[in-house]
């Protein structure tokens, strides 16, 4: 089980864009990849999409993050591309590769 402190650190690293610290933490605690925030049920991937952390999105997908996971409003991570109206900041080819690989369609 992941402690609240470690969970908060992971989400803080995503928000701050601290990819190196996040990868170090997920290497120590692989279960963090799909852990949920207590406040709004975000996963790290959802949070990375919300904060437009393109490089972190890519790494979380490589680590096996669940791209179909939904937040407390039932919104999957991929919908945050459209909600933020910043589709140009995401490498669509990388995301589409993982979406199709997992047979999930936007």
> Biggest sheet: strands, sense, closure?
none
Mean pLDDT: 85
Question: Which stretches are poorly predicted, pLDDT < 50 over at least 5 residues?
Answer: none
Report the β-strand fraction as a percent range.
under 5%
Fold-level CATH name = Serine Threonine Protein Phosphatase 5, Tetratricopeptide repeat
Tally of extended strands?
Answer: 0
> How many domains is the backbone divided into?
1
- SSE string, helices as H and strands as E: HHHHHH
CATH architecture: Alpha Horseshoe
> What is the top-level CATH class?
Mainly Alpha
What is the CATH superfamily label?
Answer: Ankyrin repeat-containing domain
Distance between the termini: 32 Å
Helix content range? 40-55%
> Structural class of the helices, strands and pairings?
mainly alpha
User: What global shape is seen?
Assistant: globular
Protein name: Ankyrin repeat-containing protein
Organism: Orientia tsutsugamushi
InterPro entries: Ankyrin_rpt-contain_sf
């Amino acid at each position: 089980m992941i402690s609240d402190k470690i969970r908060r650190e992971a989400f803080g690293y995503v928000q701050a864009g601290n990819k190196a610290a996040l990868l170090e933490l997920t290497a120590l605690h692989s279960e963090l990849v799909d852990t949920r925030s207590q406040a709004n049920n975000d996963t790290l991937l959802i949070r990375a999409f919300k904060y437009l952390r393109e490089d972190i999105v890519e790494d979380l997908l490589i680590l096996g993050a669940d791209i179909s996971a939904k937040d407390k409003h039932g919104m999957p991570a991929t919908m945050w591309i459209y909600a933020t109206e910043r589709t140009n900041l995401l490498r669509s080819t990388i995301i589409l590769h993982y979406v199709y690989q997992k047979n999930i369609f936007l």
